[in-house]
Amino acid sequence: MKKAGCLLTSVLALVLAIGAIWFLSGWWGSAQVEDDTNFIVPSGASLTSVADKLADEGLISDPRSFLLRAKIFGSSDPIMAGEFLLPAGASNSKILDTFQHGEVIRRFVTIPEGLPSVMVHDRLMAEENLTGEIPVPVEGSVLPDTYDYERGESRGAVLARMQAAMQNYLAEAWPKRADDIAVDTIQEAVTLASIVEKETGVARERRMVAGLYSNRVKDGMLLQADPTIIYPITKGRPLGRRIKQSEIAAINDYNTYSMVGLPKGPITNPGRESIAAVLNPAKTSARYMVADGTGGHAFAQTLDEHNRNVAKWFEIRRQRGEM
After folding, report:
1. For the segment 50-62, what is each residue's pLDDT rounded down to a tens digit?
2. What's the CA gap between 198 and 221, in Å, rounded?
3. Which long-range contacts (CB under 8 A, 24 or more apart) does 125-128 make?
């Protein structure tokens, strides 16, 4: 009898040991995450609802077992909302720890320098992981840069960050402006910077182009910036053809071929460097510029010198078969 009792005790101990191993392995052993998987924890979700969602997506076997083990073995820290990466082979323990202490997946959208607001709108609306509608932002209100966001975030929130970045940059840059610049207000600086942004894609030229247009503003000359002709027609989208003579002569609030001074507002979203160039332009006597065939411009102080540069540019175009 005594021997039978010992055997029964041994069997029970073995069963308990096996059960304990099974219970522990159900927490620290591999769950059902076969491949690296993105998982979204909705805002305001409870651990219970997240466990149900994990089971529905086939990432854990049983939500009740997950919750029981989480209560016994897991941290009491709250779970975070957002999108998380669950690595292949993740255990239930790893899953919970990821939701409590892991990094939320960040996604990125880039607004390049000189992208007009209609195309900023297009770019944000094309981001499938963002939600909600937005209006076309005010021209010149967005600071070109790369911005991160979370899946499911609203487009309005991302746009607000872009616009706050512009306001913050301007607030920092404006007090550092040089004396006797051509603009009197921050808005005028952004407007002139938008012209500089569209007139050159060569970084080393920005301050020179800003100096040239600053001279023209101060002298009361026509700015004669081609992008200001195009803006009222396309709102900054590519024209896709040559500018017509009737468009050069058109009278509106933007066309600097038919009006003296700055347009009524920006014609694109200028970047930091173009704004900085307007606030600290090159000291130059140049009033004219024309393409030089290398991607940059030839600058001139007098009309005669400019006309010679234009003749050289036309000859380059003829050699290229463009005329």
Report:
1. 999 999 999 988 8
2. 19
3. 125/155, 127/155
Which tokens is 191 given?
């407007």
For the chain, strand residue ranges (E) read 37-41, 82-86, 107-111, 145-149, 288-291, 297-300
Q: What is the DSSP string of 174-195?
A: GGGPPTT-S-SSHHHHHHHHHH
CA–CA–CA angle 217, 221, 226 (5° rounding): 85
Residue 65 neighbours by CB distance under 10 Å: 16
List all residues 6 or more positions away from 166 whose beta carbon is below 8 Å from its beta carbon.
140, 141, 142, 143, 269
d(CA 218, CA 206): 18
- In whole angstroms, what is the distance from residue 161 CA to residue 226 CA? 31
- Residue 40 — φ and ψ, nearest 5°? -105, 125
CB 158 within 8 A of CB 149: yes
| Residues whose CB falls within 8 Å of the CB of residue 113, separated by 6 or more in sequence, listed in order | 144, 197, 269, 270, 271, 273, 274
The predicted-structure confidence for 173-223, as pLDDT tens digits, reads as follows 999 999 999 999 999 999 999 999 999 988 899 999 999 999 999 999 999
The one-letter amino acid at 239: L
d(CA 127, CA 111): 12
List, in order, residues 6 or more apart from 99 with CB less than 8 Å away. 41, 50, 79, 80, 84
Type of residue at 311: A
> CA 123, CA 4: separation in Å to the nearest integer?
78
pLDDT at 126: 96
Q: What is the residue type of 127?
A: E
CB 66 within 8 Å of CB 94: no
Contact at 8 Å (CB) between 70 and 47? yes
Which of the 8 DSSP states describes residue 105? P
